[in-house]
Amino acid sequence: MARRPDTDYDVIIVGGGVIGASIAWRLARNHLRVLLADARAIGSEASTAAAGMLAPGGEFDQPSPMLDFAIGSLGRYQNFVAEIEADSGLPIEFRRTSAIQIALTHTELESLIVRAALQRTAGIPSTVLTKDQLHALAPLVRSDAIGAVHYANEAIVDAAGLMTALRAACLARGVTVEEQSRVTSIAATRTSTRALLGDKSIDAASAVISAGAWSSGINVTIDHHPYPLPRSYPMKGHLLGYRLPAGSIAATIRHDHTYVLQRADGFSIAGSSTEDAGFDRTIDPKIVADIAVRASSLLPALRGLQPESVWIGFRPATDTPAPNIGRVHSSRLWLAYGHYRNGVLLAPATCDQVCREISAALE
Ligand SMILES: Cc1cc2nc3c(=O)[nH]c(=O)nc-3n(C[C@H](O)[C@H](O)[C@H](O)COP(=O)(O)OP(=O)(O)OC[C@H]3O[C@@H](n4cnc5c(N)ncnc54)[C@H](O)[C@@H]3O)c2cc1C
User: Which residues pair with 208 in a beta bridge?
Assistant: First the structure.
């Protein structure tokens, strides 16, 4: 692969969430010299906050290129995790637990069935569960639930564990990791990029902006002209963590905007909220109480239990219906941000696309 020996790095990656860290790791695996810069620490934002559902059936109603991208990404997950485990030496919890979307009324069940039929034509497999089948599969679900749709292919990953392993895999593959290093600007041309990290200027053949909700705050020029990036902004979400007996919730349980999933050790995550509140990091007790009520209505075993932990994160939203992934014109700058509610799910496919394009451009 052709290198630019006159530059400090082959690629600088701005932002070390699941998107940037996976791209950095993969490029370094392909023997490129990579700098991964993060304003805080690798995995300190949305990617570690995520619940870790890998769940196209909960997210997509209609056929679309983005759904195909998501299905492809889910199909890649097992290998993605295995490769990161091998490079990092750290285990990552990834399990095909499946997911169940429950119905409380006949009208609700009818509309879930119609939606599932449409989803099946788009490539998301599912089956309809009778009341008895539902309660056999999910005995903790409220007893008046009358049926459900079961998404057998869906999975969960421990997003925080994935980020710890990705950081280690990056280091093992020789990525230069610079934490507490905010990139303020990138000047890209058709042949090179220059990034400003504090008062340091770094030259790299190519650059990737993967700074999640913060991405469009970075000043960019393309061929010396200002280039306004597509807007990114935060959609805050709260999550609650409970301790339940391990194995008591086999599949992820969903109803409307509420879900509960369980990790192998019994740690159970209930979510969520969607708040247009800027980068406000405060935990709101009213929102916590609301999620606790909704979750314990779904699973009465949670009633009266205090959450062991509560946290927030900023989903990276954009004005476009899909994330911004790809090269900016013919310059050496790539964008990889705006994955909103599905960045953990979409990481393998995003990583594949960006790495393929960058490698092709360097040839
Ligand atoms: C409550 C909640 C639940 C979620 N649940 C799920 C789920 O179940 N499944 C799923 O697939 N997705 C889920 N998501 C969405 C998922 O977390 C995001 O889509 C994904 O983490 C985005 O990854 P990212 O790498 O783009 O951003 P981030 O993880 O936010 O990483 C961006 C990084 O860029 C750094 N940065 C910012 N500015 C700069 C700068 N100027 N210079 C250098 N570095 C910078 C930040 O410090 C940060 O580390 C959830 C999100 C939230 C908030």
Answer: 13, 334
